[in-house]
Amino acid sequence: MTTATRPAPRKVTRPRADALRNRERIVTAAREMFTEHGPDAPLDEIARRAGVGNATLYRNFPDRDALVREVVCSVMDRTAEAAELALAETGDAFAALEHFVHACADERISALCPMVSSTFDRHHPDLEAARERVESLVAEVMGRAVTAGQLRSDVGVGDLMIAVAQLSRPPAGTDCPRGDRFVHRHLQLLLDGLRAPARSVLPGTAVTVGELRQCGTAA
Length: 219
Fold this sequence. Notes:
Layout: H1 17-37, H2 43-50, H3 54-60, H4 64-88, H5 93-106, H6 112-116, H7 125-147, H8 157-167, H9 176-194, H10 209-215
């Protein structure tokens, strides 16, 4: 009786280190270009800024939608990491929230709004997973501050994220570097207004992320 020969285990092909570096450079350059010029920034200019050829860009991202989606996921992942860092802080819960909000501004989350309004699939599994992770973590950061009696309880995750996006967007007619010097100053004014006890009653109800999605303004 012969014993069946088992097939040799398949080797997992892993991207080379230089290929991974090229991909990271493309995503970083795209994030900068989309922030400065919007989601319609020329792909050849993105390749030039990344220091790669057009063929390398298209080998990693076959079309604009794939690149935009990767940039959006990248920003959302970095935002989630900032929330995790805030949750890891063991001191003042509101201070942790402040650190998170300022980190969000540095990630240029305001650039996500026009990108998610483009033609690509907003319900792609990668986007859904990144979105759910961010929403859950931000809710936890805010919940800790509410429990500590430091954050007013009538503010929702949607309220916070849309305010950060709006305040971190350069004013019309100004370039990004010049507008940046006002961002953290104005964010701190916002944060002071979020502290409990509240000095006034907000009109309407707390905004949820779901409501923002329905309006097409949330990532």
